[in-house]
Structures are given as C-alpha cells and as structure tokens.
Amino acid sequence: MKREESKGMALIEGSRLIMEALARAGADSYIGYPITPANLLYQYGGQRLDIMLAAPDEISTLQWMSGLSSTGRIPVTATSFPGFALMIESINMAYMMELPMIIILVQRLGPSTGTATNGAQGDLLLLKGMISGGHPIPVLCTSSFEDSWSLAAETVKMAVEMRTPVVLLTSKEEVMTHKSFDISKLDEIEKVDHKFYDNAEQYKSYLPKDMVPEFLPLTQNRHQVRINASTHDQMGILQHSTDEALANTRRLEEKIYHRMKCHLKFDYDQHENAEKIVLSYGITASAAREAVAQMRAEGEKVSLLIAKTLLPVPPVYLEILKKYKRVVIAEENMNNQFGSLLFGINKPEGLRVAGALGKMITPQQIIEEVKA
Amino acid sequence: MNIKILNTDSLPFCKGCGHNLISKNTAKALERMELSPLDVIMVTDIGCHGIIDKTLNTHTIHGLHGRSVALGAGIVFGLKEPGKKIIVFIGDGGATIGLQHIMEAARLNLNMSVVVHNNMLYGMTGGQSSGLTPEGFRTTTSADGSPFSGYDICALAHTAGAAYVTRVPGIGDISEKLVKTFSTEGFSLMEVVEICPSYGIKFNPGMKLNEIIETSGRKPGEWFNNRPVFTHHKGKKSENLLSKTPIIEPLFYSSLDKPVSLILSGSAGEGVQLTATIIAKAAMRSGLHVTQKGSYPVTVGVGFSTAEINISKEDIHFHGINIPDLVVITSKEGLNHSKRRIGLMKKGALFIDQTLDVPDTGAEIITEDYRGIGARTASLFAAIKCVTKTKILTYEAIFYTIEAEGLDKKLPVEKIKTALGL
Predict the structure, then answer these.
(1) Residue B248: which of A9, A51, A89 has the nearest Cβ?
(2) A229-288: per-residue pLDDT in tens?
(3) Is B147 an 8 Å CB contact of chain A?
(4) Pick from B299, B301, B298: which is nearest to A116 by CA?
(5) Which domains does chain A have, with CATH numbers?
(6) CB-CB neighbors (< 8 A) of B288 in chain A
(7) A217's torsion region: left (phi>0), alpha (psi -120 to 50) or beta?
(8) B20 C-beta neighbours (distance < 10 Å), count
(9) Which of A1, A10, A360 lies closest to B245 in CB terms?
(10) Chain A closest CA to B265's CA: distance in Å?
C-alpha cells in the first residue's frame, strides 16, 4: 500500500489496538501486576476499562479476575512468562469454573526471568500442556496490527460464548513497537452480548446447552448459583467421581473442540503450483510475509500459511501442509514448538525450520530454508 | 426471612469438630440478620471447612486452597448490587498459604467477612503443622510439639487495616460474634480456634482448648480500625484510546526511493527515544511508512539508549534490523551497544561524534561534533544531520514536526538551526 492511499495514518503500538478492541468488544475490568514487556497494556487497560485494579501478585490477579467474572464482568490481564507461571493454577480454576476472561501473554526471552526486554516465541508448548488433564485452552495469536485489533475482539467473543478463559498470545516486539498504521481502516467491533440465564426453572450452573452451560452471576437473587473448581455435578456440587461429574469434566474439553470451529483464524496465501510453503505465526509472521514477497518477486513459487488459532491446533493446518513437498516453519524459539504440535516426533522429510534465540528471525533466514 | 441458610441438620464434618459449630452459628447469625440466602455469597476453598457448600442454600463458590479471600475480593470488586454479604470460609492452612490475600483485603478494607477455621493443623491431609500451629502443639509433623510460634492472624489483619477483627474459642454459641463480624462495614475477620478431633486430640490428649489459647498467648478479643471502606477509584477514563493517537497527514516530500533502516544510539537522558519519535513522525509527514522501537536497560535512567527506525515508501512487514543502513552514534555507551552491528555494515553510513573511537566497519564514516551542542540535544542534532544529508527527510518536515508535537518550547530549536547553518 502506498502511503498516499492511506487516510488515517497514526504512529501506534499493538498494545493500544489490543486494549481498545477489547474494550469495544465488552471487556470491562483490567487487573494488573507490572511486568515487562506487558506494561503498556496495563497502562492502557487502566485508562480504558471501567474497572482497573492493581493486584499484589499474579495469583491474586487471576483470583480477582475469577471473582469479577463470576459477577458477570469480563476481566482482562496481561503478563509475561514469570507472571503467567504464577497464574496457571488459577487459570485451571477459572477453566473448571467456566468463567470468561482474557489473559494476554506477551512472550519474552526465557527460561525463568530470562531477558525482560527481549522478545521470543517460547511459550506455546507451555500453553498446550497448562490445563491438568490435557484439556485445551483456546489460544489466538496476533501476527499483525490488524490481528491485534480483530483477534483481541474475537477473544472476548470466545470467552463469553464458550464460558472459558482465553489466551491472546503475542510478544514484546508486537506490543511495544510503534508503526505507521491506518486506523481509519479498522473494522467495526460489535459489543459482545454477555447473556444471562433467564428462565423460571431451577438454574443448574453446569447444565450444558450446546456443550456450554448458560451463565448466571452470583450476585442476582432469582436462582441459586454454585460455582466449583473441584470435580462437580451439573448443580456445581463437589463430587468424587460420579458419572455425571466425570461427564462434566469431559465436556470441558469437548466444548472447546466443538465451539472452536467457529473461531478458526488463519491466512492461507496459496501460490499456484507451489511445492513449497512457509508456515509462521506471531512476530515471525512479519518476516515470513516479507520473505515470501521477496521470493515471489524473484519468481519463486511459494505459499504462505499464517496460523492465528494456535490451540487447540486446527486439523486444517496439516491438511494444507501435506500438499507441499517443502514445509518451512519459522518461529522464534530453538525447538520448533509449533512443528512439534503439528507433527509430534514424526516430522516429515521435507520439513525445515527457521528458529532463533534472543533475536528476531530475518526474512533472509526463511528464504535460505525455503531454497535449501 | 423464612428461608433457612442450611438445607440440612446433618453436616459433613467429624463428630466434635468445631466446623459444625461455625456452620450452625453462621446460619443462625445470618438468619438473625434476616438475610435472604440468595443475598449471601459463600466463598470456600480446599480444606475440611470447604465441604460445607452442598449444605448451603446461599450462592456458593468453591475455589483453590488458600485463595478464597482473593476470590471473594474479586466478587466484592465486581459487585453492583447493594445489600449482598460476601463471606469467606478458610482454614488455618489456607490462611497460611493465602496470607497475602488476607493482608490485601484488610489493607483495602474490602466489604467482606472472613471466618478462619483455625484447628491449628492441616486436617484434610493428615494433620501436618500450619503457619497458625502454636508453639508446643503436637502434630503429625511435630511429634515433640511445634518448635515455633504460629502467626497471630488477628494481629496481622488488624495491623493491615481490617475494620473489625475478633478471636473466639470454638465453644458454645458464637452467633452473636458472627453477627457482629458480618454486620461490619469493611473488612472483618473472625478467628475461631478449634481442636481437630481426628488429629489434634489424638496427638495432644487431655489438652483443653482454653489452655492452648492461654499458653499460646492468643487471647480472645476484639480489634477495630475506623477506616473508609473500599470503593472503586474513579480516575479519568479514556473513551477511545485511538483518539489519543493523532492522524498524521502527509504534507512534505521525500526523495527516498528504497527502504532504509536507521539506528540511533546514545545514552539515557540524551533524548534518543524522543529523537526517534520526531524522525518517525517527520517521515510520516513526508508520506512515508515507519516502524520505531526503543531498546534500553531496565534501569531506564542510566546506560545506553538505542532506537531503531525503518522508513519506506511501501508498507513495512518486518521491522527488525539485522544490518542497518545508517547508524548515528552520540555517546560511548551508545557505541558499545551498537558496535557489533556497525561491524557488520558493508555499506551505508556511520555518523559518529568526533570524540569517539571509530570502530571497524564497511560503512562510510562521517565524524562530526555532535555533543558540542549539549549532550541532551546531541542525538537530535546528529539525527537531523543524518536524515537530511541522506535526503530521506527535509529540514521543513523535521522542524514542522517539532512544532506540531509542541516540542519547540522544550528543545533549543534556534540553537540547532544555527548549528545547522539555517
């Protein structure tokens, strides 16, 4: 796009787009604990959402969010691995309780505290295994400023529709870098309708309707509401391992697989007769786009797949990839995490990896792997 | 109200357990207060006390071990409806692992009540010592008696700012104290001291509750703080974060014909990041696309300060800079931080202050006096020299931007112009 064609150019960062989109979609509470590189999201969350609370630690953050969510609010937080690690037990709680909320995970270089001001894409496998029992938690990942806008709004929709915590995965370079960006071309965002149970019949907190129980806040006085983080029946009463309770636990997984079909997000830029494809996501998607554009300019036939719905992994990615002889996966870690999710240990022969530690993957690096 | 708080007389606790007493007296207290069960939100967690849920006609929320006070706090934060009572049941183990949550709720003086079921050990997991186990009290993990004194949870909550704190032995009718606890405006905590019939009595035969309370120095009592109850802070809110980022119209011309990457590297406090913003916005005012990012140590006020800018006529996908086209160095710290990338340059130009050692590089070297204008302006002065000499931007675009951003009062514009020979 030529600059002259753009009418609403602003110098903006991904953090601002994410928070404005979340607010427009209906998120109303920001719970924060400072951590680099997520601090801009904290700042903007505080400015934009109705409620802003400074938690004393990340366990409190998730507990407060769960309490807020149980009253019908839609809470948001943003953190990076060290904070996220503290949240995991409480995210499991919110997952079991079926409480909508959005957790923005801004990746930085690990392990441990690593380097706070260095980007990375090293947390995907953590997200894959973070719910005890192996249940999937929905994860969307931004790959552009347009995604920061539209996927942020989508997470609110997903959290409410599926009654679940949702992770928006991003990274330091995406939320802190300023870019010239045409804000006049952003799509309208519709506020998500957070519907509450409205029948006279007795309410059961975990009676599924198309896999997802209807929601009712703890703060109304028409029906008794029981919310439970332990194995429970449809009423929300703790059970050891009755059939009904185990069916409820199974449903938690099934509802995500069932409902995520409506939230499948990816860009597949298919090049006719191409035998090679580049797959990327997150911050490295920008290098992948540049690499593919450069190669095509030189006459190379190459397709591009940018994954945005990362978890649960949509089967369509494998269906696309199996059409190609050469698959290059580009992600900023040392161990090809997305490749592991897609192929396990049966990595196909034509698979090549562009990885990096502590620095961004360059378009040239991806081109070398495609041409190797 | 006729509706009972408890839906059964048969509670799920061991015979002789103080939890029975607390639950029955809680029901009695709430009924005396004429609260409808659905105006009460009972928050429980993991521990023997937490299995009370199913016997309650109130709303119930059952969370993680020791986190119920924080979970209850979240409900207080979200509450819109008046007249609701949020009551947290927690054990002494939960109070140990979740101590921070109690301190925070007391500090904020949240309108909620916490009842600590202190049976001085972890009953659900086999009778181990907790942070509230008193000195000398025998448990599974302290067969000779606990060598340490326990937390005084009441003193801690009181010191943290709780509106009302009380300690009572779990004997007889405690409903009046519970009424007082539940009727408190703000954060209230009631510690009920009990002996676990399964482990406490077994390991401490013949020991009487009042005796333990006496010897541990944890006497019954009441403590008050007269403080404002938590309300949400009504700070100024933005109705649209995008309205704070002004649209930048292209007003000037640039002769840039291919993408260029520029690194500005100096020291903290020398305006490197501000310079980057001025250059980026001036480029946008010249009809160009930009990316801009900063890099500096976590101690933002000291050490190097580096900014990376990409400028292009076309949309920029990739904003990383591996080998830069242009580098502007105005301090030794800046040089050290960017030395590696300067060494990788095979072409392009390095603009470096004359006082600094020139590193090995394939770039054209321009050595000038940038710091002579003053350290705080050196980066801006050098960057202007760089982007005008390379014909990326015009002086007009840059000085218009400085004025449009309201920076002409803060920056020595005339001094810079004079130094530039304008």
Answers:
(1) A9
(2) 999 999 999 999 999 999 999 999 999 999 999 999 999 999 999 999 999 999 999 999
(3) no
(4) B298
(5) 1-263 (3.40.50.970), 266-371 (3.40.50.920)
(6) 3, 180
(7) beta
(8) 17
(9) A10
(10) 17
Taking only the tens place, the pLDDT of each residue in B373-412 is 999 999 999 999 999 999 999 999 999 999 999 999 999 9
Query: How far does Cα A40 stand from its chain's mean position?
Result: 18
CA A345, CA A159: separation in Å to the nearest integer?
32
Query: Which residues from A are below 8 Å from B77, CB to CB?
Result: 29, 51, 53, 64, 67-68
In this structure, which amino acid lies at residue B328? V
Contact between residue A179 and residue A186 where contact means Cβ atoms under 8 Å apart: no
ipTM over 0.95: yes
> CATH 3.40.920.10 in chain B, residues?
248-420
pLDDT, tens digit (0-9, with 9 covering 90-100), for B407-416: 999 999 999 9
Contacts with A209 (C-beta within 8 Å, 6 or more apart), sequence order: none
C-alpha distances in angstroms, A304 versus A139, A297, A318, A332, A353? 21, 14, 14, 17, 14
User: CA of B306, closest CA in chain A: separation in Å?
Assistant: 13
User: Homologous superfamily of B248-420 in CATH?
Assistant: Pyruvate-ferredoxin oxidoreductase, PFOR, domain III (3.40.920.10)
For domain B18-224, give the fold: Rossmann fold (3.40.50)
Q: Which residues of A touch B54 (CB under 8 A)?
A: 237-238
* DSSP 3-state of B120: coil
